[in-house]
Amino acid sequence: MPDASPSYVTGLAAELRTRRPDLLDAAENELKELRIRLATIARFINTPTTPLDIRQGLARDLHLPEPIR
Questions:
Q1: Where are the domains of the chain?
Q2: Fewest CB atoms less than 10 Å from the CB: which of 41, 49, 51, 58?
Q3: Higher pLDDT pick, 62 / 2
Q4: Between the CA of residue 38 and those of 12, 25, 33, 62, what are the distances in Å?
C-alpha cells in the first residue's frame, strides 16, 4: 500500500476524533502503557548489576540494541 498523503491522513484523524473519540483515547492509553513497558525493559537491559549475557540475550530477543558493558 503506498504512503497516504499528509492531508488525507489528517482528514482521517479528524474524522476519527469526531466520530469515535473513545477509540482514539483507547489507542493513546495503550501507546502510553507500551512506552512505559519499553522504558522499564530499557532500564533493565542497561543495568550493569545484571549479567551482561542475560541483558544481551533479552535485547537480542526483543530486537533492541544490545548493551556492550
A1: 20-69
A2: 49
A3: 62
A4: 28, 20, 9, 10
* pTM (global) more than 0.70: no
DSSP letters for 3-67: PPPHHHHHHHHHHHHHH-HHHHHHHHHHHHHHHHHHHHHHHHHT-TTS-HHHHHHHHHHTT-PPP
60: CB partners within 8 A, 6+ apart = 66
pLDDT in tens, 40-57: 999 999 999 999 999 999
Cβ proximity of 67 and 56 under 8 Å: yes
Residues 32 and 50: their CA atoms lie apart, in Å, by 27
